[in-house]
């Protein structure tokens, strides 16, 4: 019986340990009888736990200071058609009166 290669590093040197298969090169362990997991992207949530998606409209929940500007983004500002991305600032959008910006999901509320 031949064991499968490691799904993470593709190493052929895998071995069985009870009901799991182990890769000695990257230390990945998996159950060969488990249902395959679907690769889902990260889930983005607003400050209140609502799930955000590309194209949503959000409201800023607190005044946000903007580097290089003397005026902050005011609480209650509505931002339309957001785009989600990975990184420190999760939202790529155009804020009315400021232009293109990146915001953090923890400072917005989905409408």
TrEMBL record:
Residues 2-31 form the Protein YjdM N-terminal domain. Residues 45-110 form the Protein YjdM C-terminal domain. It comes from the Bacteria. Signal peptide: none annotated. Pfam families: YjdM (PF03831), Zn_Ribbon_YjdM (PF08274). Gene3D superfamilies: 2.20.25.10, SH3 Domains. Belongs to the YjdM family. This is Alkylphosphonate utilization protein. It comes from Savagea serpentis.
């Amino acid at each position: 019986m031949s064991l499968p290669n490691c799904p993470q590093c593709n190493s052929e040197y895998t071995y069985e340990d009870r009901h799991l298969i182990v890769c000695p090169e990257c230390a990945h362990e998996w159950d060969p009888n488990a249902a395959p997991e679907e690769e889902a992207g990260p889930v983005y949530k607003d400050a209140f736990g609502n799930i955000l998606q590309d194209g949503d409209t959000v409201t800023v929940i607190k005044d946000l200071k903007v580097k290089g500007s003397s005026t902050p983004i005011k609480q209650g500002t509505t931002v339309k058609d957001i785009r989600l991305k990975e990184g420190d600032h999760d939202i790529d959008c155009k804020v009315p009166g400021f232009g293109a910006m990146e915001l953090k999901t923890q400072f917005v509320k989905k409408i």
